[in-house]
Amino acid sequence: MNLQKVWTIAQKDVRITFGDRNLLLVMFAAPLLLTFIIGAAFSSFTGSDGDVPINSIAVAVVNEDQGTTVFLAPLNYGAILSSVLIPDGTSTQTDEALHKLIKAQALSRQDAIAQVDQGKLVAAILIPANFSASLDPTRDKPLQTQIAIYRDTGSPITASIVSSVVHSIVNKLTTSSLAIYAAKAQVTAGKASPLLLVNPQAIVQAINDLAKTAFPITLQKPSDSGTRSASITTDPIRYFAPAMAIFFLTFTMAGGAGSIIDERNNWTLQRMLSSPTSRTTILAGKFGGTYLNGVLQITVLILATALLAPLLGSHQSIWGNNLAGIVLITLSAVAAAVGLGTLIAGIARTAQQVNVLSNALLTITGLVGGAFFNIASMGPIFQTVSKLTLNYWATNAYSTLAQTGDLVSVLPDIGVLLLMFIVFFGIGLTLFNRHLNT
Amino acid sequence: MASIVEVRNLQKRYPPARGAKQGMLAVKDVTLTLERGEIFSLLGPNGAGKTTLISMMSGLLTPTAGDVWIDGHSIVKAPVAVKKLIGVVPQEIALYPQLSARQNLDFFGKLYGLSGTELAHRCDEVLDFIGLKDRQNERIESYSGGMKRRVNIGVGLLHRPQLVFMDEPTVGIDPQSRRNILDTVKVLNQQGLTVLYTTHYMEEAQELSNRVGIFDHGELIACGTQNELMQTVGEKDTILISVGENAESALPIVQNVMGIESVTAAEGTLKLMAGRGRQTLPAVIKALDDAHIMLQSIEVKEPNLEAVFLQMTGRALRD
Fold first, then answer.
1. Quick one: A180 and A240 in the same domain?
2. pLDDT digit string, tens, across residues A274-307
3. Whether the Cβ atoms of residue A300 and residue A28 lie closer than 8 Å to each other
4. Are residues A189 and A257 in the same domain?
5. Do A265 and A135 reside in the same domain of the chain?
6. Predicted confidence band at A316 (pLDDT cuts at 50, 70, 90)?
7. Which chain B residue has the Cα nearest residue A268?
8. Do A201 and A267 sit in the same domain of this protein?
9. Alpha-carbon gap: A408 to the closest alpha carbon of chain B (Å)
10. Which of these three, A178, A202, A224, is where a domain ends?
């Protein structure tokens, strides 16, 4: 394979693409226009600043605390924690604010985890069996224990809110518990009489010392649900910018892959084949040019939407700040789209068939994959079907990266896109070769 | 002259269509040679298989049987070496309409291994040669048919091939542009280029060729110089005179005219064979006039390739 000639052919295709005004309208103007029109339309449901007010975060509280007995009286710190989170009709004003933010219910461990996995709950707060025992003031010192939070990674923001709330409640419980130990230590040391003198400063110092050495109750690092619900972004434009970009990318790539049929009809393919240029080089050049067009298309759309979105009221960074992640997602999404385009062109026999197949198949995959509405708002069956499309994985990857900034969290999406490229391109190329038999 | 092209038993059978047992045999066992520096015309009607033959010779199609050697290199075994030696001017306008003439030449020149100043210089030369240097930066889609044909030829000459295949290069263009292309072919040949030229226009084959191959239904029916081919039909002129219902009675009158070798009558038309038709015609007209036989039309046909084709295939070139 002659790389110089591959580049020559790829360059030629890019030049032809970017010299075609009609094609540029489809590649750039249409997705930009639709992004902002649909995004603006959905913004009217989410408030003037485009943010979704955060409330009623659904969580489960799993209290497995066995409790303890202190001075012959039963004590269950897990129940205390649960009563703070779950309204019982006796709420104070402060409690009402908390209950408005978090909508908690008591569930078994099995049910709680299942509902998080299904996306019905944002998180499950798992209170361990030895929670109260670890805080038993009759012990010499508090034992270590951990509260676990099992979260839906598709809702990272609300899950972290839950973590913060639980953390603050746990802190209060812990401080109270430590106070008891500190007072006990004073008495034991003969520095204070339980009935008479109590040195408050010493108690505070003792609490601090205890806290430094071993905070008895900590939050376990949140574990993630194995499944992930589609993320619900708070800014519609943040969703539709990548969704539209990917949707129109698929059409560009199908057209690029199918252009070899046009070249056969126009005899420019035969002209290339009659030169001392191998079929492999010609194919590599054609697909390379198509790929390059795709990368350029997405890059321009990313830059354009990032620049224009603030003008239309979007206050969030549409694509996020993780440049490496954006690049990786783009490269893999374009590859998957080239693969799909090659498959379509391989199946078709004529240029007209490429057009018909592209229009039908890519419109369906766009609809199902979430180009025109947020998949997270659809039912579980639809969400499952959407995962058959590259639109879903690419859009989800961009959205998740923009929200979390975490490249690792989108590696599965990138992996799926690359797998799609391998499968689609492999099958498509096998079928495609017959187009070179002029 | 040494041979530059040897075609031996070349055959092409296409894959069978659905339901068919055997595919179409488009080219049947063709053997021919081209001498270095000649213009060889392949004359035949549309659908004869000329393009299929040229496609195999230029490496676009794989032969079902046989081989082609160009300057000693086999198209089957060493296609890359062959492709460096040949230029192809297809019947279709094989150019990118969205690019300019210059950009097309630049692109295809790179595929032939040209680059840098050599490519730029060669593009300039070709544009000069085809007379389009002042419009080199305009898109092909803005060109007339004749201009497109010229660029089409130019691309085939970029890499200075030893041999160029021209497949019906004058189809669909105006007479002036056709004249221009024919003159271009002659100039190229004078510069030493060997040309294989396919056409269904007898006049082009007659004007350009050293040798002509008569091609029909995938077969090379006859091959030789124009004189050799015309001798197969004899060197006699044909005079056709329409006399209507008097044809039978006119037969004995014209038979006796000096210079007339044979006469037949059919459907109101006398068909006379004469060694020198134009010189004999006045005497024939006088004889018929003296017999008060009215002449409706007169046509003199001198021996030509169309007559050769008609003789050998039983049908006209433009059927």
1. no
2. 999 998 899 899 999 999 999 999 999 999 888 8
3. yes
4. no
5. no
6. low
7. B94
8. no
9. 43
10. A224
Measure the CA–CA gap between B87 and A333, rounded to whole angstroms: 41
- Are residues A131 and A204 located together in one domain of the fold? yes
Q: Classify residue A25 by its DSSP letter.
A: I
- Please give the CATH architecture assigned to the domain spanning B3-231: 3-Layer(aba) Sandwich (3.40)
Q: What pLDDT shows up at residue A299?
A: 94
Per DSSP, the three-state class of B212 is strand
Of B103, B213, B89, nearest to A19 (Cα)? B103
Looking at the structure of chain A, the number of domains it has is 2
pLDDT band at A358 (very low <50, low <70, confident <90, very high): very high
Asked if B64 and B219 touch (Cβ cutoff 8 Å), the reply is no
Task: Assess contact for A285 and A8: CB atoms under 8 A.
Answer: yes
Residue A220 pLDDT = 56
Interface of A to B at Cβ within 8 Å reads 4-5, 8-9, 12, 15-16, 19-20, 266-268, 270-278, 438
Query: Is 50 exceeded by the pLDDT of residue A71?
Result: yes
Q: Which of A61-65, A137-141, A217-221 ranks highest by mean pLDDT? A: A61-65
| pLDDT of A312 over the 90 cut | no
Q: Which domain CATH number covers A197?
A: 3.40.1710
Q: Examine the domain organization and report whether A15 and A86 are in the same domain.
A: no
Given pLDDT bands bounded at 50, 70 and 90, which one contains residue A202?
low
DSSP string across A357-419: HHHHHHHHHHHHHTSSS-GGGS-HHHHHHHTTSHHHHHHHHHHHHHHH--SGGGHHHHHHHHH
Rounded to whole angstroms, how far apart are CA atoms B247 and B235? Answer: 25
What are the structure tokens assigned to A317, written together?
A: 């960074």
Taking each helix axis from N to C end, the angle separating A236-266 and A30-43, rounded to the nearest 10 degrees, works out to 160
d(CA A100, CA A87): 10
- Give how far B179 is from chain A: nearest CA, Å: 25
Pairing mode of beta strands B25-35, B65-70: unpaired
Note the CATH architecture for domain B236-302.
2-Layer Sandwich (3.30)
So what's the pLDDT on residue B102? Answer: 97
Q: A61: which residues sit within 8 A by CB, 6+ positions away?
A: A81, A82, A85, A86, A104, A105, A106, A107, A124, A125, A127
Q: What is the pLDDT of residue A337?
A: 95
Q: What is the pLDDT of residue A310?
A: 76
Structure-block tokens of residue A207: 């609490």
Contact A12 B108 (CB under 8 A): no
Average pLDDT in the A394-416 region? Answer: 91
- CB contact under 8 Å between A274 and B60, yes or no, is yes
**Interface contacts (A, B; CB < 8 Å):** 63
In terms of CA atoms, which chain A residue is nearest residue B89?
A271
Predicted pLDDT at A436: 65
Residues of B in contact with A438 (CB under 8 A): 55, 60-61
Q: How far is CA A389 from CA A333, A356, A371, B198, B288, in A?
A: 11, 19, 11, 51, 88
Interface predicted TM-score (ipTM) of this complex, two decimals? 0.82
A21 and A165 in a common domain: no
Mean pLDDT over A348-352 rounds to 87
**Domain ranges (residues) in chain B:** 3-231, 236-302
Whether the pTM exceeds 0.90: the reply is no
Residue in B with minimal Cα distance to A282: B111
State how far the Cα of A34 lies from the Cα of A243, in Å rounded to an integer: 10
Q: Which of A181, A199, A224 finishes a domain?
A: A224
Range of the domain at A154: 57-224
Q: In terms of domains, do A71 and A203 share one?
A: yes
CB-CB under 8 Å, A438 with B94: no
Query: pLDDT tens for residues B205-264?
Result: 989 998 999 998 999 998 999 888 887 766 678 888 999 888 888 888 998 888 888 888
